[in-house]
Predict the structure.
Amino acid sequence: MAIIKVVKAGKTKASLKSALNYIANEEKITTITGKKLITPLNCWGSLKNIYDTMIATKELYRKAIDNRNSEMYKHFQQSFKPNEITPEKAHEIGKKWAMQNFAQDGFEVCICTHLDTEHIHNHFIINSVNAITGKTIEIHANKTLEKLKYSSDELCREYNLSVIERDIFAQNKNHEYNMRKKYSFLREQFRDLTWQKTVYDKIIAILNKSRNKDFKYFEQELLKVGIKLEHERLKKDFIFNYIDENRKVSDKTLAKTFHDDKILRSNIEMIWGKTLQYDLDKKIYLSEKKQGFYNLIENLIKTIDNINKLNIKTKVEFYIFMEKQGWLIKETQTGKAFYNQEHDRYLYDNTIYKILENKAYCLKYIEQNLM
């Protein structure tokens, strides 16, 4: 049994690179034998080559410019029922599904199989521009998506996996099939089978037990049942670390999965009190990827702090100084931004302010105070 899910896609070249890096994370795609479950179709080589090939296709048909109204790629996820399939078989099915629906028509695809959750799942990044025709891919919510899900069901039957029969969801005598009803039903089954249900039940029990107590008590009780609460990792989320299974899930994911908003951080803090404030220096709660991002933020902070020390008064002096420190000021379609040459990374004012809550480090504010 497999569920096909559409994942929100980005509209910039940077988002395409990030999506490829995410699905090809070696910790997620490597089997116990050391094999990496990644396959490109109509492109080849390293992850960088895959990205460059997709961008080259866009440039060939003059569709490589970041566009707020058009997605750079399509992202699908194919999730299998827990304990029903091996990683290799899941990857094989994913390759066949991608070939049947995209690659054989000329679209470039990168397929990765993730093994880091209870349900093995495939990720597909599909270039939005066809390498043969130059046309942009179109996915319609009804016809196209139903065809993609039907194709996945047929492959599951071919591999003797369970499939929910269509007649179960027929709405009338003509046996019209309700695809949305079927996949909602499957998601409910997945929900009850996953480790997240155990975590959810434990948290709810602790919440009920913690009435009239403080936040520290709530946190300690969670730890007693094997759940470590990481509230410093992100500013707006709780991360519940299920120690026995070495798995993590956010409060937002649990609230969405089990339709229960009382598990959200905002509601918990409203009753049991505020947690510690977010601290930029607490890197032990950040993944390696996020540590690199916050190191970049800190580098920018230190660089900007030197502006006053060096008595920089004009924009020209400011640009020259920043360039010497590895930062360029670049004009993009969404406005000016700091650009770090070493990491090939843009930092926009809204990102900087969201993290620091201090406009003194925003480019627009700095330039307003320079001649």
Remarks:
- The radius of gyration is 24 Å.
